[in-house]
Amino acid sequence: MSERIVLIEDDRELGAQIVAHLSRAGYQVELKTEGTFPIPADFQGVSLVILDLMLPGLGGMDILKHLRTFSDVPVMVLSARNNTSDKVRALKMGSDDYMTKPFWPEELVERVRARLRRPNLQKTGPLTVAGVCLDASRRTATAGGAGIELTRVEFDILASLMRRPGEAVTRQWLVANVLDPDKDSSERTLDVHVSHLRRKLGKENIIETVWGIGYRAGKGGSR
Fold first, then answer.
1. Which residues is 189 bridged to in the sheet?
2. Mean of the pLDDT values across residues 83-110?
3. Euclidean distance between the first and final Cα of the chain, in Å?
4. What are 178-213's pLDDT values in tens digits?
């Protein structure tokens, strides 16, 4: 089954062109031409959202903000706005890529392919590894049955590892996909977040270091 993409673009001619190119590349594309309040059911099974910012109805930034309250589906912003402040704001609000108009359709298709090759972090049901449980829809975490308070970055690091238990996730991937691009997004910063996270997990620490590569969620943390 082809991967499903939702395109939110009010320019019908441009939208049709994008749909045609992505369809030829093997994707199933749904075009929406107005900004509406995102509903969780509408994004179930969606692999990627391509989002314009200037829309009739609800604006693209507001759509992104509300979408991030219930879904981690990758979002690619496609906008005529090319100033740095808009790009930084979109990234801080949770977009995964930002492409300015005009653009070459071939580049868009390749960016879509590159984005969809990355591991899918879309929210599903509760995640459990050993004594740690995350509820992605409620953004809650427990370790050994007791609730723990995690920052946004700590939660996303832990969720990224727990979605692939036993698999090594590189430090470079975590830096690029979890840390805030508007702050110090370095591997050293990542290590500091992991250190704080391990302390909060206590004896239920499940984060193992994979030397020379990164981290993984295992049965017992190995520092």
1. none
2. 86
3. 41
4. 887 666 678 889 999 999 999 999 999 999 999 989
Q: Tell me, yes or no, whether 187 and 96 share the same domain.
A: no
139 shares a domain with 99: no
157 and 95 within one domain? no
Strands (E) in the chain, as ranges, are 4-8, 28-32, 46-51, 75-79, 97-100, 127-129, 132-135, 140-143, 146-148, 169-170, 207-210, 214-217
pLDDT confidence of residue 45? 86
DSSP 144-206: TTEEE---HHHHHHHHHHHTSTT--EEHHHHHHHTS-TTS--SHHHHHHHHHHHHHHHGGG--
Both tokens of residue 36?
């509406």
What residue has token string 């840390």? 179
Among the listed residues 207, 209, 211, 202, the one whose alpha carbon sits nearest the alpha carbon of residue 221: 207
Half-sphere exposure of 174 (CA within 13 A, CB side): 28
Q: Count the domains in the chain.
A: 2
CA distance 89 to 200: 30
